[in-house]
Amino acid sequence: MNMNRRAFLKTTGAGLITSAFPLSLVKIAFGGQGPSQDFTFGYISDAHIQQIQGNNFVRNWDMGLIRAVREANLLTPRPDFFMFGGDLAQLGKKEELDHGLEIMSSLRGKVRYVIGEHDYYLDLGEYWQSKIGPLWYSFDHKGVHFVTLNSILTYDSWVHKKWPSPMDRMLAMARLDNPQGSPFMVGGEQLTWLKKDLEKVNRSTPVVVFSHSPIQKIFKPWNFWTEDAERVQALLKPFEKATVIYGHVHQIEYNQIGNITFHAVMATAWPWPYPESYSQKASCMPKLTVHMNRADPFFERDATGWQFIEMRKGKVSMHYQLPDNKNRSVVFNSKTGKPQDVNYQGYGSRIPPQTHY
Ligand SMILES: [Fe+2]
Ligand SMILES: [Fe+2]
Fold first, then answer.
1. Count of domains in the chain?
2. What is the arithmetic mean of pLDDT over 102-114?
3. Which ligand is nearest to the CA of 120?
């Protein structure tokens, strides 16, 4: 049944018109989903819309987001809602946020947003809040409690005292390999809010947290890291089913820490390197990362994508929609108690990087 669905999604992604399929096929592909409380949602992240000058924006980043929106609009039946995982803009400019929101406005359905560091460090979220909404919030949907965090805050002294201008601050935080950066964190005010928010939630209610940086410590020099991750994890510990979905790392990662399942989402803009490229020192990266061909400059969408997510009995199944790579699924395995790449490639069976001459 899952194969049918993946094949169907891949086909719709290729641009065929959904209504051309007989209704019975749709029913077969989506039948047997279990209790009526199970549902689906879409997830698009890290578009990095970048202004060159005036109305000129970097075409490749535009096209990544446009393609994700177009493919997501072909999903039938419709997902219950969509999330955008942060880094809508490259340098937090109004023009970039406006342009990104204009592209996102074609997405059919309710969309909620997570803020990323590229959206935040120019004006500290002021324009974002006026156009999109609060930087952290929670909501309930069909028996699941969802929490959206702003995980990319940092020390006041770094934010307010170090930089001659807001754009200098933005440029410093926008770098990947960044000796001038500062570790991301959720911070005391938000932790107090989160504690209060979760107090009213029954321990058997599934909880899903959306963040931009991982709420686990992967690699500090690139800020694949949240300084107070353990404090958030401690608040999630009492729950039977807790999942964290994060952007920022621009690659597929999955991990299990105690009761908490972690999933990363792909960027629509570009991929970041895999853990083998990181310095291993001071790093406690997830044990499993899904490998695919690395970025090939001859395919502008290589190693980018968006996500179709199923909530089944409170657990998350991630279906990665990858325009220039084979679609991948990472599904919670109740026997092992961990998420698992359903087509996990051992080292010997991985596709070697492309060579061009
Ligand atoms: Fe990003
Ligand atoms: Fe980011």
1. 2
2. 98
3. 2
- How far apart CA 5 and CA 155 sit, in angstroms, is 45
What is the domain range of residue 161?
37-354
Please give the distance, rounded to the nearest whole angstrom, from the Cα atom of residue 343 to the centre of ligand 2: 27
Closest listed ligand to the CA of 222:
2
Task: Give the confidence band of 200 by pLDDT, cuts at 50, 70, 90.
Answer: very high
If asked whether residues 129 and 238 sit together in one domain, one would say yes
Give me the half-sphere count of Cα atoms (radius 13 Å) on the Cβ side of residue 255. Answer: 19
Task: Report CA(26)–ligand 2 centroid distance (Å).
Answer: 36
What pTM did the predictor assign? 0.88
Q: Is the pLDDT of residue 353 over 70?
A: no
User: Are 91 and 4 within one domain?
Assistant: no
Same domain flag for 25 and 94 = no
- Give the pLDDT band (50/70/90) at residue 22: very low
Ligand 1 centroid–CA 276 distance in Å is 19
CA separation for the pair 221, 224 (Å, rounded) = 8
Instruction: Give the tokens for residue 109.
Output: 């359905």
Cα of 246 vs centre of ligand 2, distance in Å, is 10
Q: How far is the CA of 48 from the centre of ligand 1 (A)?
A: 7
Answer yes or no: do 130 and 26 share one domain: no
Give tens-digit pLDDT for 222-270.
899 999 999 999 999 999 999 999 999 999 999 999 999 999 999 999 9
Residues 153, 206 share a domain: yes
Residues 6 and 90 in one domain: no
Buried b (16+ CB within 10 A) or exposed e, 28-66: ebeeeeeeeeebbbbbbbbbbbbbeeeeebbeebbbbbb
Q: What is the mean pLDDT of the chain?
A: 87
Whose atoms come closest to the Cα of 88: which ligand?
1
